[in-house]
Amino acid sequence: MAMWLTKNRAAEGPVFGSMDKFEGLGIFFDTYKNNRPGTVFPYVMAMNGDGKTSYDQANDGKANEIAGCSARGIRNSDITTKARLTYFQDSFLRLELQYKDEDKWEQCFEVSTITIPNVAYLGFSAHTGELSDNHDIIRVEANNLYSTSPEASKPGKDRVSPGKKATQYDTKSGQKQSGSWGWFFLKIVLFLIGSAGAYVGYTIWRSSKRNSRF
């Protein structure tokens, strides 16, 4: 079975059921050993396709592997097998597996020199030979990760964890806005006091004018 993050949409082909000479990332969960001496299978590996290089079918991808690990026990596991792929652009790519115990993740690999297309299609495919195997994908989750800027590490700066939104508040701007609102209300109060004084003065003047008639 394979997981894909590629520049182009999936198309049927010879590489785990998908097209060869792809551009992007391929994660291969190979459960059957064809011709790779010294490697324990099942084996999980990553290939960073450039759109020109073919998958090394004859040697189970040995010539294309940028990272990988043996995962004996991933088939017929007593728990639901899980894989967690984490990618920070221009930083690292990490694959973790869970197949031995619940909530126990084991790192398969981590690489730093890899680039995934900015706009990539996520897909899954599978292919088998004479010996058949069965894989069921129960659930797929995708989440955005947020990496803090260097400014956030300075004293007095709020740090934001991956997956959380950052809320910024400008203290000076807030004080300025608060002061402007206070001055606005003060002007309203002064205007009301002035209006009330003018009305009282007008009432006294009108009363004195009436009394002067008699």
Question: Would you kindly provide a written description of the structure presented here, covering whatever features stand out?
Answer:
A hairpin with a 3-residue loop joins strand 6 and strand 7. This protein has one helix and nine strands; from the N terminus they run βββββββββα. The longest helix is centred in the C-terminal third of the chain and has 42 residues, at 171-212. It is an alpha+beta fold. The protein has one helix at residues 171-212, and strands at 2-6, 12-15, 23-30, 43-50, 65-70, 82-88, 92-98, 106-111, 121-125. The strands form two sheets. The chain has a five-stranded antiparallel beta sheet, with no helix packed on it. The chain has a three-stranded antiparallel beta sheet with strand order 6-7-8, with no helix packed on it.
